[in-house]
Batch of 4 targets.
Target 1
Amino acid sequence: MRVFAAIACACLGLPAAAAALASDINWDRVDLPSERAAIERFQAFDQRLQDVGWKLVRGNAAFCDRVIPSIGLQLQDLASYGAPEVARAALGMEGDFAVQTAARGSPAGLSGEFPGNREVTRLARMDPNQWEAGERLYWQRLTKAHDHVDAMLAEHGGIEVTFANGESVKVGSVDVCATRFELMGEGSRAVADGNRVVIGIDFPGFSYPEEVFAGVVAHELAHNLLGHSAWLDRNGRGRRNVRKTEREADRLMPWIMANAGYDPVFAQRFMEQWGPRHDGGLLRNRSHDGWDERAEFIAEEIPTIHALIESEGAADWRTHFRREIDPQKGL
């Protein structure tokens, strides 16, 4: 499914056998418990990202231009790992496909049938394990599997998933904003490209409480929901244009968070917690306002959001949000 079709990061970094071919592995030197711990650590960070991402895209579906059906399931394919044989042994798997995450509150998560690392043998009528793959770092097959799930959801409104023990479960989809969330196995950046929100595992916000961490996810999601990448492609990525889009994303943060059930004040709290240590001070990128200015811009949106929720039951940003840019410019 497209929303949570995050490619299992090729830089996952299995500690003992990161990029080894199966024929090169010295099994006497492989610490399988450590390998499994490394995988499970990555999955724990990924789960946190997917849980927050799901709340945001589900809660704002009524206001997004692009909406797709989703069940909140993210798969993994061991062919995308640096050492698939080691990962297979560490996880005790026979095949390559398994559950990576099922977002909390999603149809997959609520079903209780998708614990992490549960082996998958069929997606509807297809067995993705039978598809051709490279020896390692082959992410294309996982993309194909998620595209197949997307197609089944769009056509049938749900999908039947079969597991290695022969059990099957049918899961119906719900509508969400069309953005997927991906965790990178290294780095501390958070970026959006129009279709994805990508956050590095070293991003400091992962140590924050969920409602504060949601601020950065909402900021990057805002870029996608407002079409910033395409607008910048058409109109240029000069400092002035980028600054306008960054300011818009900051200001939309609390709207997105409020519709997901988070207090919009936590958008301001994120900027106040993250900014003093990480916005660069005098050396910051001048395509962004200073963190204190950004916090003020966010705070100015909150009374409007509270009033809309009180009167309409939701923060309809599609109707009431004031744009910094002309979204039609350059079309």
Target 2
Amino acid sequence: MQQELVNAPAYRIEGEDRPSRWLVTCDHASNRVPDWVNGGDLGIAACDMARHIAFDVGAAGVALHLATLLDAPAVLSDFSRLVIDPNRGEDDPTLLMRLYDGTVIPANRRADAAERERRLRLLHRPYHSALARVAARHPARAICAVHSFTPQLRGRPPRPWQVGILYSHRDERLGPAMVRACRDAGWITGDNQPYSGHLEGDAIDRHALAHGRPNVLVEVRNDLIADDAGQREWAERLAPVLERVLACSGL
């Protein structure tokens, strides 16, 4: 057990003591497969492990640059969403995917209840425990979750948005204002596109909505943030907008 824990850190924290009320999170930061999961290989091609099904391409870099600019802490996962998805509740049927965007995941197809529990215990729960701890360090915490999306799913129309702003119908204090601010900046911005902003049991539900914390989820199209220059550029674009929207909210 101890060896498993040493070899499979579940998360990364940067700037835990930074003073901002913002907390930047990145649930799908990494495509790493721990060596105790099927020998570190899910049974799919390297090119598939490098695309959006395994992690949010470019999101970690945006999150880290954004956290630095906001002088905020950042919490990032350190395992692939295909191993177990940290942005899903423990009872979500998509927690452990066996087929994703046309790709079968052989190591997950064979995973039983015991294996699912092991991945929850060693990865999913430690990540959420760390996130909860850092979130609680500021009494007026606001959360910005950073994700990315692929320009086109297989067999689906192209996605035109540069950035999507996601928020739940249970908390519209920041989301709509953030959409307007992004559009005012001239960015093609999705309002709860390309995904809905509400998912029961996801990270925002668990760490923001359940505690009344202001929140927004930012999705950047991954071809725009494929390298460090793009990641830095979008962090520099987003940071002042986030600061302004939060300040103007009066929260």
Target 3
Amino acid sequence: MKQIIAIERVSRFIGLGFIFTLMDRLTGNLKTLDVSKLIKKTIIPLASILLFIGLWHLGAKALYNREANYKIEKTLEAQGIEAAEALRACINSGDISCQPNSLPAPGQVWDSYKSLIKDHNQISEDKAAFKVKTSEINAKRIANGESPITYTGRPSFIDQIIMSLKTVFAGFLLALCIAVPIGILIGLSPVLKNALNWFIQIFKPVSPVVWYLLVFMIVKTILIDSSEDSSFIISFISVGLCSMWATLVNTAMGVASVDKDYLNVAKVLKLGPVQKVFKVILPASLPLIFTGLKITLSVAWMVLIAIELLAQSPGLGSFVWEEFQNGANDSNSKIIVAMFVIGIIGFLLDRVMLTIQNSVSYNSN
């Protein structure tokens, strides 16, 4: 029973509460429900999902037929009717070697998802076997002060998701550590605000690609003698610099708009500058600060894919680019799987930030 309640809370948290509303209605647990409310909260969301899948399937089928006909016509012009009919028969047979490589249908995407999970399980088994195989050798190497032998095989899809999350959280923490202190200083000092306003307005709209190139120049120069891979460092610093501006601006606005009565109370209580910031200014500014942090996290997750692609850092961006370059028959469907994963994780990150904001904010709304 507790597990069902927990699942229901999670479902409502991520916006899928209509499923449990429908289940309650079908099982009779929900006896007094207005029909219009049932339609609005359950039927319409379900219908929109089914409509999306249906339109996707029809669109994919139309594109598939268009490319198939194009390939057959080109083969007819270049090689004659026998080759064209042979290609048509091959396409109709479902042979993967001659299938048109267009927008995948929902069923193909689901198959690719299962394939990626199966691939992850296989790689996990290989890692476990490698760890057992090298355990004795690594123990000796560590005892001799040498670095252990590590697994160098390709990462799985789940491994790349985890790497992307590590990169985005590192970038988010960097943005927080830079933007919040500077935002507080700017909000407290009109002189400092005027001095730095030009800097913010110029660098805030800079493209992630340009930030990546700038960070690449600096980090590569600093780590010129290092043999370690710097792609992760470049990636998370670029993500942090791209995404910090919303938090900086919102923090400055929140601090500058603190009620003057609160500041007068701080004077009466003879609070020091640090006490005034932590006991009065920050609590009063939290709603705007967290609004900026939500935007920062969303921007960080969006720019991460492009930056990982450029930095060749393991992650979802690298995965998408490698599948695009690969050009295999299931590459397109794997890219669509990654697209859904990126969207779902971005949505969940936003919900997590909203929950944290509600738990620490003094604003009852």
Target 4
Amino acid sequence: MSLHGKVALVTGGAQGIGRAVVEHLLENGAKVALVDLNQSVGEECKSDLDGQFGEDNCIFIQCDVTDAGKLRDAFQSTVEKFGRLDIVINNAGINNEKNWEKTIEVNLTSVIQGTYLALEHMSKEYEKEGGVIINVSSMAAFLHSPHQPVYTATKHGVIGFSRAIADASEQGNYGVRINTLCPAFVDTQLLRTVEHEETMGKFVKYKDEFKQRMDKYGILKPSLIAEGMLRMITDESLNGAVMKITCSKVLIRTFILLKSSADTSNS
């Protein structure tokens, strides 16, 4: 699948993994709507990208992904601006064990909502041309810990939902591939929330153990996650796949693709 001329929407697109993905998409000739809650960061990101890739290739849409109406409007604005939609990356996520209801809303509910909105704009069942959806989970779905029980649950949920809807897409001939990305520790703002009681609540007492895990397993750069995501977007053989991205302190980078539920259970 060539990215040239394709249109993508990326939630959480103004920073971290989202921004790295947006840059990779633009470098490969796509047009992108970066959707983010943070107005100032989003506007600054848009300005930087305009300087690199030209003013007509991306737009910034301020949006709280937990607001279903605003998320729907973001999809509609993207299509109105660029005339189509081919790629949706449900990347927005938070780590907040204290306000665990919000964590579920952002990490799981908005992913489900974003997937259904993407299907409305891309699925052949709606007489569209097809496309690809990437939902971002985490290695926390495979390696649970006492630090993030609700975060872990949401990331399990993203994999389960994505694989089930990918099967539905295949059986229903939607023409939309749906895959899941599971990064290990990534150098983003989210990673630093483990140090604060206002986000971790009573689980903040485990922060030193959490940091030891980061030291043991290493921390990935967002650009590597973007590289893996582009592989899942462009490889037309992948539907219902789960990609694990990990690293070690000696910078051995590992991409592991799981293509069946049996593979997941044995990992």
